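Example (one chain per record):
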Amino acid sequence: MATSCASLRTNIETRIIRKLWIRIIPFIFALFVIAFVDRINIGFAALTMNRELAINSQEYGFLSGIFFWGYFIFEIPSNLVMHKVGARTWIARILISWGIVAMATGFVRNATHLYVARFLLGVAEAGYFPGILLYLTYWFRRSQLAHAVALFLSAIPVANILGAPFSGLILDHIHWLGISSWRWLLVLEGMPAVAGGVLTYWVLPDRPASAKFLTAEERSHLTAELAREEQEKMARHRTTILQTLTHLRVWHLTAIYFTAMVGQYTMTFWMPQLIKAISGKYSNTTIGMLVMIPYVAALASMTLVGRSSDKRLERRYHAAVPIAIGAASFALLGKAPASSVLLSITLWSLTASAINGLMGPFWSLPNEFLTGYSAAAGIAFINCFGNLGGFLGSYGMGAIIKKTGSFRDGLVFAGLSWVISAVLLVALPKRTQPPAEGCDRVI
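Predicted structure:
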C-alpha cells in the first residue's frame, strides 16, 4: 500500500512538473530575456552614444545607474498590486509600458533627456523581477524552487548571449534614414516588450487553479500541496507586511543582494567598454561576440548550481562559494595585463559565472520564511533596496575612471563588495526544517 501511494504521488508529481517546465518556465524566461536586454543595452549603445552626446565616464555611470532609483521607488507597491490583481494583467502592463519607454529612449537629444528616460524605464519595469519570483512560488514547491528560479534567471546570461552580438551588429550596420545606430539599437530592442505584454495578457495563467494545461486532478493536487507548505510556513513564521519590512533576516538578505549587485552591474554596464579598451582594433560586432562568451559560461554555472542546491536543499554555501570566486576574478581583472584579451575574457567568464550561479540559491531563501503578502513585500523590498547596489556599482565605476583615468580600482571595489556578500551569506542562519515526506504528501 505504501509503495502504491508513493508511486501514485511520484507519477502525479512527474506529470505536473513536466507540464510546468513546458508551459510556465519557457514563457517567463522569454519575457525576462526581453526585459534584461532593454535594461542592459545601454552598455552597448555607449560605445557610440557617449561620443555623440558628449557623455563622460561619470555621467555614463550615473545615467546607467539611475534606472535603479525608479525601480526602488515603485518596486514594493507594484509587487503588492500584482499579488492583488493577478500576474497576467499586471505583468502585461509592465511589459507594454517599459517597451514604450525603451523605444522612446532612442529619441533623446542630450544627457539630461537620457537621465529622465532611464529613470522612467526603471519606473515602468518596477515590480517585474520580484513579481515573477513571487509568481514562481504560486507554482513550485520549496524543494523545486531553486531550480525553477535558476531556469528563469538563466534568461540573464541568455539575454547577453543573444543581445551582445545582435547589439554589435546593429551598431555596425543599422543607419537607416540617417539616424545613429545606437538610437536604432534602443528602438528595435524595445519593440518585443510591447508584443510580449499583449501575448502575456492572453496566455499567462494567474494561478494553478485557473491553469487549463493541467487536468482537474493535477490542479487539485498542486493547489493542495502548495497550500500545505504555505500553512507550514505560516505556523512557523506568521508575519505582517510591517513585520516583514523590519525583519532582521530580510535586511540581512537585502545587504547580501546590495553588495552582490554592486559587482553585477559593474560587470553588466561596463564590460563592453572595458573589453573595447583593450581591443580597440575590433569592430563593435566582434566586441559583441567577445562579450557573449562569459555569459555562455554563466548559463552553465547557473543551471548546475541551482540543480545542486535543490538536490541538497542547501542555499548558503551554494551562493557564497560562487560569489567568493567571482570576487577573486574581479581582483585579478584589476591586475591583468591591459593587452591580454584572452586572459580578460577568461576572468570575465569566471565573474559572470559567479553572479549567475548565486541567483537560484539566493532567491530561494526568502521563500523559506515569507508567505502571501509578506512574501510579495519581502521579495520586492530585497530586490528594490538591493538593486541600489547596481547604481553604486555603475556610478562608482564611472567616478573612479574619471578621477584616476583607469578602471582597475573600480574592479577592485566591485571585488570587495562581493567579499562582503560572501561573508554575509555564510553568516545566515541555517535553513529551517525540511518539509515532511510521506504518503500524506500530495505530490
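Caption: The mean pLDDT is 87.
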